Request: fold
Amino acid sequence: MAYSYWTATETGRGFITHQESADLKPKGYGLNIWRIRDMGVLSTAWVTKVNASSISKEEAQTLLDNALTTSQSEWDASPARQEQVHRPVRRILE
Amino acid sequence: MAEYKGIKGFKVQSLGSDPSIVGQVWYNTSSNTLKYNVLAGAWTSGGAANQARGDAGSNTSGGTQTSFLGFGGYYNPVGNMSNSEEYDGTSWTATPALPAARAGIRGLGTSTAVVAVDGDGGGYKNDCYEYDGSAWSSGGSTSRYRRGSSCAGIETAGLVCQGYALTGAPPSPTAGNANTEEYDGSAWTAGGDQLSHMGGTAGTGTQTAAINAGGDPNIATTQYYDGTSWTEQADLNTARGALAVFGVQTSAIAASGSGPAIPGMTEACEEWDGSSWTTVTSYSSARYGSVSAGTTTAGVFGFGYIPPSPYFNTATEEWNKATTAKTVTVS
Reply:
């Protein structure tokens, strides 16, 4: 099954409906990056509805990696954060 | 005498739009696809929270998709928080703050009779607070100082178990504790010890029929409590900690969490039927340290950590079982 990557701002109710969740298997990675299953007109309808912008998998990975560097630096410098959360690790897009 | 329809069946209808009857098969003339309806669970976007945070508390065991309280938690750069919010099935509304800022606090009860217990407030605490729908007041203190415990039950018949009992960075799983304490609305008393010492578990149910699952690091264990003792049940398919579990002892959903390897995250969701966990539609945005409530047909899930950025988020998702159209494919 083919997937595609998009950037779209999560707007709350209506952003992903029950039927879209079942059809597109959306997966969010933060930074407004979403992966959806390519389902022809169903995918196109969601992209249009949420005004999503196409992004390549490599571009999405770069955005996440850049954010990771910042996030890890913040974690390393913050004992308070170290007590609360795990040190963030790289997420590898599938 | 057999009828023709009974032998040959009915013709598949050609329809311009999808019908809503479970079990129906039709040909959609708009998409030119053969489709059928099933009753399936899936996650949908809900109203955004007012304040992003992770490791907050909630009244998981008594909350519903339309009446659910989230309180405390951690947000950088604020630190430990006292903010509380209530979800009504559409949006979050700020409610009176906890008497003290707490991360890793946990809770139980209905939204007009909430018990919030323990947590980290500059050191591990054993405080207990009660919320009556309009204000917080002090309740009886637990015997253990801990954070990240699991709760079940209602205000007059509550339960707290497990959690981290010692400080550390990162929190050590060996610091988990097995103590169970029961609440009668005024005081906590010792219950039956759990079978293992863990933090990062999640639970729901009642004081005499509770379920507890997962845990750090990468634990798949499920346990039942009957009001006296804990018993081992079938493991989760995806081991994880800092997950969310909502529902009742014999019918529950386990969602997201940190795993299968810490500090990674999983969006995997599983449904418990009283004997085994079955993988169901994944949560959209994998996260850990979230809050949840509801049932296997109508649940809610919010807050939590989604590293690397934004580390803290406001997104809420609702779990519903509803008529879902499926397309027949050749693959």
Observations:
- DSSP finds four helices and four strands in chain A.
- Chain A has a mean pLDDT of 91.
- The two ends of chain A are 12 Å apart (CA to CA).
